[in-house]
Amino acid sequence: MDRFRLKNIIILILLLVNGFLLGTLAVRKSAEQEFFRRTAEQLVELFEADGISLDVYAISRDTPPAGLTLSRDTALEQRGAGFLLGEAAASADQGGGIYSYQSAGGQALFRSSGGFEASGRLSEEPETFCRDFCRTFSYEEPVFLLDGEGNGSASAVCVRGGLPVFNCTVRFTVEGGCVTAVSGTLLPEGGVPVQGADEVLSAAGALTAFQRMRRENAAVASSVTGTQLCYELQNTGTAISLTPAWRVMTDTADYYVNCVSGTVTAG
Q1: Cβ contacts of 36 within 8 Å, gap of 6 or more
Q2: Is the pTM of this model over 0.85?
C-alpha cells in the first residue's frame, strides 16, 4: 500500500471517529434537553397545584459555579482606607484581627471577617464618591435614597465573577451633602475554588427547596418570575467563603437558596 492511499485511509478513519463523537454529543444534548423539559413541566404543574404561577422560561439552565475560599488581604484594606480617608491615613494593629486607620478626615476599622466601618467628613461629593468606591472595589451601581437637603443613604451589593453576593453590601450615610459614614463588607480579591464539594442544586432543585419552605412557613407568593445565580457569603469570623446560590424572584419578595445545603433565606 503506497503512502498516498494510507494517508487517505487515516483521514477517513479520523472523519468517522469525529462523526461518531459528534453524534454521541448530539444524542446526549438531546437527552439533557428532554430531561430538562420534563422536569420543567412537572415543576410548573406542582406550582400550579399550590396556586403559584411558574413560567417555564423562569427556570434557568445555567450551571452553578464552584464555591470560593477567601484569604484576608490587608493590602486591599489599606487601599480601601486610603480611598475613604486619604492616602495619608496612618494604620495601627489593634489586636484581635482589627486594624485601625486615622487621618484628618476621619477614622476606619477593618476586621478579619471582612467587615469595615469608617466615619468622618469623607467626601462632599457623595454621588461621585459612592460610585467611584463601588466601581473600584467591585460593587454594583449604588442605589441612592436622598432628600432635597442632601440627607439620606446609598447602598450597593458586592459582585464577584459577574455574580452578585446577596448578603455582602456596602452602605453610605450622607448628611448635609457630605458622606459621613461607610460600613459593610470588603471581600478579599481572588479566591481558591472549593474542591470535592457535594453535588450542587440546579435551578429546578432550588425551586423545589423554595416550594417546600413556602409550604412549611406559609410564605405568601402568587408567581415566580425568574431564577438567577449568585453567591452567598459564609463568614465564621476568621474564615470567609463564597457559596453558590440561586435567587428565586417572586411577585412579593426574593428568596435565596444555598446550592450546597438547600437552605432558603428570605431577601
Answers
A1: 61, 204
A2: no
